[in-house]
Design goal:
By secondary structure, this protein is of the alpha/beta class. The protein has a single domain (29-263), classed as Thiamin diphosphate (ThDP)-binding fold, Pyr/PP domains (Rossmann fold, 3-Layer(aba) Sandwich), CATH 3.40.50. Helix content is 35%, strand content 18%. It has nine helices and ten strands. It has helices at residues 3-18, 37-51, 86-96, 108-114, 119-125, 170-176, 190-202, 225-231, 244-252, and strands at 58-62, 77-80, 101-107, 130-135, 138-139, 145-146, 181-186, 207-212, 233-234, 257-263. The strands form two sheets. It has an eight-stranded mixed sheet with strand order 2-1-3-4-8-7-10-9, sandwiched between helices. A two-stranded antiparallel ribbon has the order 5-6. Strand 9 (233-234), helix 9 and strand 10 form a beta-alpha-beta unit. Bound molecules: iron/sulfur cluster and magnesium ion.
Length: 266
C-alpha cells in the first residue's frame, strides 16, 4: 500500500472506531474532493445518531447521478434504482413496512428532470418518506450539462452560449404540490441540515429537504461555494412555518433563505 493509501486507511479506521460517523459504510464516498455532498452526508449522519435510529430500520433509496451512489456509502439498507424513480420505490418500501424510516435521495436532474412527475404525487399523498434533493443545478455524473434548476445563461460544455431554459424552483414546487414539511438548507451548514432533518424525521408525513450544494468539478460560475456562502442566510425571525402563504412568498423570493419554511399542523 502506498503511504497516502496507508494514511487514509488509518484515518478511516480512526473515524470508524470513534463512532462519530456511524452511518458510514466501509465503502468510502467516490465523490470529488470538495463536493457539497459530504456536508449533507455529515448532516444526515448526525440526525440519525442524535435520534438513535437503528440502522437496520433505515432504507436509503436513490435514482441515478452522483447522489444516486449514496446508498453504497451508508451502513443501512439501500436501493440504487433507475433514473428518476427514487420516490415511487420509496413509496413502495414504506407501504411494505411502515416501521422503516425511508430516505429518498437524488439530484436536481434526477428529481426535477427525469423523475419530475413523481414529486406531486408523493407530496399530495403525504407518504411518510423523507426526500433529500441535492440541488447543485447541474448534471454532475454526466460531466456537466444544464439541469432543470440551472439559471438562464448558465454556460457549460453542453451550453457554451448559455442555457436558454428558465429554471424550476424546487421549494415552490414542493409547497404548491402540498408537501406537509418543506425545508431549504445548505450543504455548507451540516448542523442546520441536522436540525431540520431531526424535525422532518419526527414529522408524520412527507418531508422535503431542498439542499443547496456545489458541484466543484463542473460548475465554476454559478453555485460555487463562494457564491453560495454570500447568498444564503437564515429565514426572517418573524417567519411562521405553519403559514403556507408566508412559506410560498419566501420561496418566491430569490433570496436563498434557509430553514424550515413550512410544517403543516395535522
Ligand atoms: Fe460532486 Fe460534481 Fe463531483 Fe458529482 S461531479 S461528485 S456533484 S463535485
Ligand atoms: Mg445535480
Amino acid at each position: 500500500m502506498k503511504t497516502s493509501g496507508r494514511v487514509l486507511a488509518e484515518q478511516v479506521k480512526r473515524i470508524a472506531e470513534s463512532k462519530v460517523f456511524s452511518i458510514r459504510s466501509p465503502n468510502l464516498p467516490t465523490w470529488c474532493p470538495g463536493c457539497g455532498y459530504f456536508g449533507i452526508h455529515q448532516g444526515l449522519n448526525n440526525a440519525i445518531q442524535r435520534l438513535g435510529l437503528p440502522h437496520h430500520k433505515i432504507v436509503v433509496v436513490s435514482g441515478i447521478g452522483c447522489a444516486g451512489r449514496y446508498p453504497f456509502f451508508t451502513d443501512t439498507y439501500g436501493l440504487h434504482t433507475v433514473h428518476g424513480r427514487a420516490l415511487p420505490v420509496s413509496t413502495g418500501v414504506k407501504l411494505a413496512n411502515p416501521e422503516l424510516t425511508v430516505f429518498a435521495v437524488g439530484g436536481d436532474g434526477d428529481g426535477l428532470g427525469i423523475g419530475g412527475g413523481h414529486l406531486p404525487h408523493i407530496a399530495r399523498r403525504n407518504v411518510d418518506v423523507k426526500y433529500l434533493l441535492f440541488d447543485n443545478s447541474i448534471y454532475g455524473l454526466t460531466k456537466g450539462q444544464p439541469s432543470p434548476s440551472s439559471p438562464i445563461g448558465f454556460k457549460t460544455k453542453a451550453s457554451p452560449q448559455g442555457n436558454k431554459d428558465a429554471p424550476l424552483n424546487a421549494t415552490l414546487l414542493a409547497l404548491s404540490y402540498g408537501a406537509s414539511f418543506v425545508a431549504r438548507l445548505f450543504a455548507g451548514d451540516p448542523e442546520g441540515i441536522t436540525n431540520a432533518l431531526i424535525q422532518g424525521i419526527r414529522h408524520k408525513g412527507f418531508a422535503f429537504f431542498h439542499l443547496y450544494t456545489s458541484c466543484v468539478t463542473f460548475d465554476k460560475e454559478y453555485k460555487t461555494w463562494e457564491h453560495l456562502k454570500q447568498w444564503v442566510h437564515p429565514l426572517p425571525s418573524k417567519h411562521d412555518p405553519t403559514n403556507l402563504k408566508q412559506a410560498i412568498n419566501e420561496s418566491l423570493d430569490d433570496s436563498f433563505s434557509l430553514g424550515i419554511l413550512y410544517k403543516r399542523m395535522e
